[in-house]
Amino acid sequence: MSKLKKFVKSPHVQIALVTGICIIVLAYFSKKILPQPIKYLPAAIPPFMMVIFESIKDKYKDKKFAEVKYWNIAVIVSTALVIILTWYEII
Q1: Could you give the number of structural domains in the chain?
Q2: Which domain holds residue 55?
Q3: Three-state DSSP class for residue 36
Q4: The pTM is what?
Q5: Contact criterion met (CB below 8 Å) for 49 and 71
């Protein structure tokens, strides 16, 4: 069981899980709830946030902004913004 806990505590796994869940939420909202589908570029914003995190994580190890919890929140907020802005037909 300790291997599983160690695996889940990895920042790479945490950001990947959050991003995957957000992509599934975007797909569900795009197909079932929103009046029009989400366009390709706005749908790519949450994975792009993950790529930014992965690129700066090793370079800025000791900095506060390189912590995975902030980037998880950024992915979730960007997902919510894409859904809200698509709902109101802003993007």
Answers
A1: 1
A2: 2-87
A3: coil
A4: 0.92
A5: yes
